Structures are given as structure tokens and as C-alpha cells.
Amino acid sequence: MAILKQDLSFLKNNVKQVNAEMFTSKSRTVTDRTSSPWFSVESKAAKQARRRAERKWNKSGLEIDKQIYLYHKKQVRGINLTAKREYYSLKFSEVQNSKDFFNLSNELLGKDKNTKLSKSIKSELLPDTFGDFFT
């Protein structure tokens, strides 16, 4: 009985050691991405159905599963395109004048409002440098 307990404790220690060596925890960086403003619950459900169909097709390799996946893929593309179109139409319908239109266009294109001037030239010499360039 004592030998059995020794063997059992020896085995238990070896298993702990192997687990510690093989299954060490790894640190990972998770990037949190904000969803697009037009992304909806319907879009999320359609994407989940598409991924489900894709996994089924990859697992089975059947032509019918491929066709189902392509159908879901087309559906997701259509839902996202419609949602995006409605979002931008609503945004542009709220525009009152040309100034607002250009501000919205710049915002949607990701353009910065601040003009960036050259830092290699001193700010006092910058107007003269521009003038020399254009004359």
C-alpha cells in the first residue's frame, strides 16, 4: 500500500510538471474595434449565419454546402450595402448648405480640419518661402 501511495504521488508530481511545461499561459493582445455606424443586429446575424455555413462547407466539402455559403455571403453583402447606403443618404439629407456638405464630406473621408504646415521651416519665414516659390 505504501509503495502504491509513493507511485501515485510520483505520477501526480510528474503530471504537474509536464502540465506546467506544456501548458504555460500565453499573453495575447485583444484589439477592440468599434463597429461601423451602419452595422446592425441584422448584419451581425447574417454574418454569423455566413460563418456557420462556411465552417460547414469547409468541414464537409460538399457542393450544396458551398452553394449555401455563397448564398449567405451574397445576403451579407446586400444587407451591408443597403444599410450603408441608407446611412449615407440620411447623413447627406440632413445637410443644409454647401459648408455643411463639405464638412460632412471631409468627416466621412477622414480628412483632418487642421492644416499641417512644414515644421522644417521657421513659422516667421514660411510666408516668404511660399511667396518665393510662386514668383
Which band does the percent of strand residues land in? under 5%
Mean pLDDT: 86
Give the helix proportion (percent range).
55-70%
Count of extended strands = 0
What would you call the shape? flat
Q: What is the CA-based Rg, rounded?
A: 30 Å
Which stretches are low in confidence, meaning pLDDT under 50 for 5 or more residues running?
A: none
Put simply, the count of helices is 5
Order of helices and strands: HHHHH
Span from first to last CA? 102 Å
Strand pairing plus helix content: what structural class? mainly alpha
Instruction: Summarize the main sheet.
Output: none
Describe this structure as you would to a colleague.
With 135 residues, the chain is mainly α. The protein has a domain at 37-95. The protein is 69% helix and 0% strand. α2 (41-60) runs antiparallel to α3 (63-93).
List the helices and strands and how they pair.
Elements: H1 2-22, H2 41-60, H3 63-93, H4 98-109, H5 126-134
Helix pairs in contact: 2-3
How would you summarize what this structure contains?
This protein has helices at residues 2-22, 41-60, 63-93, 98-109, 126-134.
Give structural attributes.
135 residues, mainly alpha, 5 helices
